[in-house]
Amino acid sequence: MKDITLIEGLKTRRSIRSYLDKPVPDRLIEELLETVRWAPSSSNNQPWRFVVVRDQKKKASLRGGLRDAIIPFSKQIGEAPVVFVAWYTPSIVLKKWQVSDVSNAVTYLLLAAHARGLGTCWIGWFSEERVKKTLNLPKKAVVVALVTAGYPAEDPKPKDRKPVSDIAFRDTCDAPWGSGVADR
Ligand SMILES: Cc1cc2nc3c(=O)[nH]c(=O)nc-3n(C[C@H](O)[C@H](O)[C@H](O)COP(=O)(O)O)c2cc1C
After folding, report:
1. Ligand 1: does its nearest atom lie under 6 Å from the Cβ of 77?
2. Which residue's alpha carbon is at the smallest distance from atom 25 of ligand 1?
3. Which residue spans within 26-164 are E strands per DSSP?
4. How confident is the model over 111-150, as pLDDT tens digits?
5. Domain that holds residue 113
6. Among 113, 135, 144, 157, which is most exposed with the fewest C-beta within 10 angstroms?
7. Are 126 and 74 in contact (CB under 8 A)?
8. What is the pTM of this model?
9. Ligand 1: centre distance to CA 116 (Å)
């Protein structure tokens, strides 16, 4: 099994949209879910819930309910061996942070999968109503993401990233990081 350092893993993960026709064993899925539990969450409320979908008909149904123009962005849902559906039930006190909490867990899932040689893609284009109906989720549930997963059948090049000087500032947003301030 592949094992990589954390920083290496953070930098080499890619969105994988094409998968081998090779099943992902339950014990591997369990290891990923076990890892995901360690994500940080507001007041440690751990609101994340995952439905692991392998059933072909259910996967096809998850893809439904989208406008034609959007469908290409979710085609891998029908093709991936596994689709994780990440959702939560809003709490009155913590609802402000729960999307962040579940997003943290989803990021952990992408990275844990990468560390074990699986490819994943975060899918934001889905019909929440369709997903909830397909999986019998509670009425109040909020679906944060679908994550397709499987052994990669592609090795995409890294996508461009903005340089640090464009995304970071010193003390206020008027002073870009790297604007001549000496090292401290
Ligand atoms: C919130 C979110 C929603 C996304 N939705 C989709 C999607 O619906 N379909 C898709 O193919 N990729 C989707 N992606 C993947 C992004 O396109 C991808 O992360 C980005 O282009 C950078 O590429 P990389 O992940 O290979 O570094 C999504 C990513 C995030 C974080």
Report:
1. no
2. 15
3. 49-53, 82-88, 119-123, 142-150
4. 999 999 999 999 999 999 999 999 999 999 999 999 999 9
5. 6-158
6. 157
7. yes
8. 0.95
9. 20
